[in-house]
Amino acid sequence: MAYRVLRELWAFRTSLVFWLVPLVFCPLPIYYAWTDFYTEAACGYVVIIMAFYWSCEVVPIGVTSLLPVVLLPALGIQSARDVCSNYMTDVTMLFIGGLMLAAAVQRWNLHKRFALRALMLFGTEPKWLMLGFMSVSAFLSMWISNTATTAMMAPVASAMLDEMRQEEEDENGTSNDLELQEVKTDDPSAAKERRRTTPIDDTAASSVEVIVENKEPAVVDEKTRRRRDRRDKGLLLCVCQAANIGGIASLTGTSPNLVCAREMDAQFPDGPGIDFATWFFFGFPTMVLCLVLAWLCLSFMYFGCSLCTGGCSCCQGRGRSRRQDAITKAYAELGPMTFAEGASLFHFVLMVLLWFFRDLRFISLDSGRAAGWTYFFVPGYFTDGAVCITVAFALFFFPSERPRFICCRPSDDERTGPVPALLDWRSFSDRMPWFVPFIFGGGIALAGGVTASGLATWLGDQFSKVDGLPDWVLLLVMCAAVAAFTEFATNSSGPSILLPILARMAERLCINPYYLMVPASISASFSFMLPVATMPNAIIYSYGKLTVLDMMKSGIWLNVLCLLVLMLTTHTLGIAVYGVDTFPSWATCLRDGATSINTTMVTTQMT
């Protein structure tokens, strides 16, 4: 009887959370309704509701992100006009512009060409194949969404696994037919034309699918089956973990990075803020170190001693040659680079160069301004978001073919007239995850409410009571807390709630705000343990080869290693890039008995 009741309650768990959470926590704002602490308590009530709704996915997370528009004005925390202004900011435009460029790259398969070419260079022995998959996934995740990256790379990884299995079955006298094909994921007839295909995330416009026709089942011993299962798990798991890690390298790589940039501007308007170049100089080396350690960790867990030796016999000789031939054939089918691919690559490189050389703060001119091409514009007017939208706008009129106009027309082409642009609105909207800007804007709106209500100041005061702890211990605890929280909620929700609090805590403890806020944002990407943590994890889990326990066993080690790397780079690169060893003049030290301080922090706290 009790089991039946529990099973019934579990079936309606989302409805229970939807109604019970607001009811259970409603005494919080009611109790403080006629006190000076009301706005803080009311904002805490909103934070609790959104945290539960985000974590349990009571409604789509993009819809949950719209709740601040209703709750903050209703509880008297902020006006609707102020709340809504957070949903379309300069940082949001930077994010949307990046998605436009990513859509153009995906439309013309430039990312697929790069991925296959890189895999040709790395080889097909499992440990090097894993490194190849991780390197490609991490690089692509720097520029396009980690969901799209995983949706593209996971079928390629599955193709290699099926090819390895075919080689082993051939040795046992069985045979399979394997073929790599590109299909449209939204084509309903595709499923009828194949015996079995790997699952593909429906957010990608097209991908690589693996078609295997089993002619005769193979009989394998238990030892071979366990070894094959470990190999399959490792080569699939490495894709989503690398996609999660890759996003930390660039400012546009993942939403927590952009939330950090936004909060630095909002909390410290007189500060230098965060731009693409400064984030890249800190984030890229951090990403590379995390990626290398993740590769070593996963290789040891799933390949064991083969990491240091030549590998197992089934992965050598003719097998390696056949897998290499499969990749080479898939790459050859792409043909030579087209005009559209070259144009997409040109716009991609152009945008990165414009980001890097926009504001060279380490080079000061005689006028006192930093070097860079924005020197010719009004100071502070041209941001990374404006650069991104400028290049993205060009995609909608730049031709996807060589123009058929007078001298530009090929001699053997008699046609004339305009040609399609690199990107059109339908292609963009089909690839645009529209819920993501809502999640991003909702996080910023919630952070604005936490600041406006005074909740950030109050919590900062409470956390400042840990003044006796070394700074590095405080940083480690905060980063670990964010990493743990994002295992159950969206990776932008943790930084959105915590960063305003860390900003106030930094001023209370007289710590450089960069020291707490940047690492906390990066640690939000360390979501390795659960399928619900990120979409890449969910995509890989959907293949049915991994259990939750498999992801947790490897994820806990990756969390530990990446947090240690983050601590190392914060105390080395952080000093060089952000000056985290000094308290800046643009922040105010609010420690008891102090006014404004601009001096070197106590060295013993940092060590």
From TrEMBL:
Its main location: membrane. It comes from the Eukaryota. InterPro entries: SLC13A/DASS. GO terms for cellular component: plasma membrane. Residues 163-199 are annotated as: Disordered. One of its GO terms (molecular function) is solute:sodium symporter activity. The chain crosses the membrane at residues 12-34, 46-75, 87-108, 128-145, 235-256, 276-298, 330-356, 376-398, 434-460, 472-490, 522-544, 556-578. Pfam families: Na_sulph_symp. Residues 181-199 have a biased composition (Basic and acidic residues). Belongs to the SLC13A/DASS transporter (TC 2.A.47) family. NADC subfamily. This is SLC13A5 protein. It comes from Branchiostoma lanceolatum. The gene is SLC13A5.
